[in-house]
Amino acid sequence: MEGIVLVEFKNFCVLYAEDDLEVQANISKILSLLFLKVHVASDGEEALELFKKNNIHIIITDYEMPRVDGYKFILKIREMSQTIPIVVLSSHTQKEKLMNCIPLKLIEYLEKPIIYEKLLQTLKKCVKEIKNSADVEVMIGEDIFYNIESNHIQKNAKTLKLTALEMRAFEYMFSKKNILVSNEELGFYVYDSHDYSVGAIKNIIYRLRKKLGREFMQNHKDIGYILKSL
């Protein structure tokens, strides 16, 4: 059962904000083993920019950060999304300050140093919250929807049939929607190694463009691709 839950994590992207670089490196390494994509920020301002530019499903943030602290960062997030799961990391000396966050619908508050088992249990709560939320289904474009939980794409109310490689390519492009992804970056993710040909990647993208529509998967010749999404 544990293995099934961990596999489910691979459908989601995480935004992690932490200004302590040593803690940041350790936690982001763990998260990268669990999730499809981990976006890392060193302060609240950088985290806000990453949230606006990427498809984020879970937020994990430190409370004390420079420029924009965790509390102000969460306030901004709640202006944009009332449902995205948020986890706050903090030291025991900041418990009184954390009382401010109670109305902001946090999934959990974790005290530093972070214990892996507690982090894992909290992440399971986050995934459960996502599945109970209407945000599981995301609109990519007119009449095209992506269900994050089931990994199904519907176009004109019909489920598209994608191969395993096409699905991996789409998942990665979706995690980087509206951002140029290079052939090398996409190839390494799809094949999980550097042993692939650019021709193979082009063929996968060609098939995706045919199924989704050319307007959604833009080709930047000899550089890479952009998945255009709402």
From TrEMBL:
GO terms for molecular function: DNA binding. CDD domains: REC (cd00156). GO terms for biological process: phosphorelay signal transduction system; regulation of DNA-templated transcription. This is Two component transcriptional regulator, winged helix family. It comes from the Bacteria. Pfam families: Response_reg, Trans_reg_C. The lineage of its organism: Bacteria, Pseudomonadati, Campylobacterota, Epsilonproteobacteria, Campylobacterales. SMART domains: REC (SM00448), Trans_reg_C (SM00862). PANTHER family: TWO-COMPONENT RESPONSE REGULATOR (PTHR43228), TWO-COMPONENT RESPONSE REGULATOR ARR22 (PTHR43228:SF1). InterPro entries: CheY-like_superfamily, OmpR/PhoB-type_DNA-bd, Sig_transdc_resp-reg_C-effctor, Sig_transdc_resp-reg_receiver, ST_Response_Regulator, WH-like_DNA-bd_sf. Residues 13-127 form the Response regulatory domain. PROSITE patterns: RESPONSE_REGULATORY (PS50110). SUPFAM superfamilies: C-terminal effector domain of the bipartite response regulators (SSF46894), CheY-like (SSF52172). The modification 4-aspartylphosphate is found at residue 62. Keywords: DNA-binding, Phosphoprotein.
